[in-house]
Amino acid sequence: MSELLKATDVSVHAGAEMLVEPVSLALTAGRPFTLLGETGSGKSLLAQAIIGTLPAGLAAAGQVTLAGRALDLARRDGHRALWGRLIGVLPQEPWLSLDPLMPARAQIAEGHAFVRGLSWAEANAAADRDLAGLGLQEAADRRPDQLSGGMAQRVAFAAARAGGARIVVADEPTKGLDIGRRDEVTRLLLDEVAAGGALLTITHDLGVARRLGGELAVMLKGRVVERGPAAEVLAHPRHDYTRRLIAADPASWPQVPPRPGTGAPVLRAEGLSVSRGGRRLFDGLGLDLQPGEIVGIWGPSGCGKSTLGDVLLGLARPDQGRVTRGAGLAPQRFQKLYQDPPSAFPRCLALGRALDDLVRLHRLDGARIPQLMSRLRLSPALLARRPAEVSGGELQRLALLRLLLLDPVFLFADEPTSRLDLITQAEVTGLLTEVARETGMALLIVSHDPELLSRSADRVISLASPETAGPRLRHQAA
């Protein structure tokens, strides 16, 4: 197997602080390499250092050899000519990588035209084939804001591959996707490897790591704590952290008996029907949410889970039916935890400034911010950074902190843990359910993971795939 990339003693620094200890690795044609670890472990920073995309304020050291060309990582000017042509990057947040005003087909066609040199007619045809291969034929003319989180991720994946690069760096490529779509994207990544390409994947998903195989490195607090063939590491972990990571899979969580809420409903939906693009998502849906009740929403990508939550919050209108709220409850106490955390924060403001603005606007207790930061395992240093300068998992926990400051009576949590590693996912899910029980907050959780919902929700609503003939809805005990 030929070596396409060699990284030697790569480290990342913030001033005098070392964020990632020196790591050496090689990407070879036909063999995947996966970095597995919790949010903030340094796996994304390591990949960004290797490909030359570190955020401002951070510095890399070490050397990378690409296509026989040695690059000094202390300099930032060596990688640009290789992006798209030799290295294709699938970033962690599709919302930060896609042009918000450009339809999906055009975003993919640009890579075919500008990098591969195809005519625009050929590029558009190639983009349509890419979309069809990902099950996104109907999304060709939609902007990113008209796509679900999973659909946006698949569009970003197609755009990253359009230039024909032999090395693909995929940062959490399956987050926000249902199990079927996750396996589909994993197959696409493996197809790239089988065709003689190299693959570096950053993930917290054990299922993805198992399916990719190849070599696996487990990271914790900026250093590699275990490394070897993926099948061997996951079957016989030697490090305690790797064992804890495997044990944190939702399938291993204890089964908690349902605890239905009591009292007058916080929110009531009656006879809701919604269609999108000529397709009925759900019909005749009725739902009461009582204080302290935890309800799960499950279903494949694009089936209407996020739309249902938006209708309940008044962010979208149903075709039929109505939603009523409990009397005397302020509007700001009905809140949404977005699937894509960049949606919750202004891009150009430091995160601490955004939280301070919220405190001033609603006259909240700012002293709760440090308490919640500690409870969510967030470093105070993150408050000085902008949204694009923190990991997806850190940004999701900051978005949760922002909402908890408002003491919501109803929280629609749209895939709240899709960007979190297994250990942090268990902690955040536990925190959400704990807050719901303690404060009487009604909690509606959307997830692609039925195991997570069955072990955390009092009941689960399953929405059918929009591709089936006729919408289906079923309630079940958790």
Automatic annotation (TrEMBL):
Membrane topology: Peripheral membrane protein
Keyword Cell membrane among UniProt keywords: yes
Keyword Cell membrane part of the UniProt annotation: yes
Compartment annotation: Cell inner membrane
Domain of life: Bacteria
A Pfam family matched in the record: ABC_tran
Major site of localization recorded for this protein: membrane
Domain ABC transporter, chain residue ranges per copy: 5-246, 267-477
Gene3D superfamilies noted in UniProt: P-loop containing nucleotide triphosphate hydrolases
Keywords annotated in UniProt: ATP-binding, Cell membrane, Membrane, Nucleotide-binding, Transport
GO cellular component: plasma membrane
GO molecular function: ATP binding; ATP hydrolysis activity
Protein family per UniProt: Belongs to the ABC transporter superfamily.
The protein's name in its UniProt record: Peptide/nickel transport system ATP-binding protein
Organism name: Paracoccus tibetensis
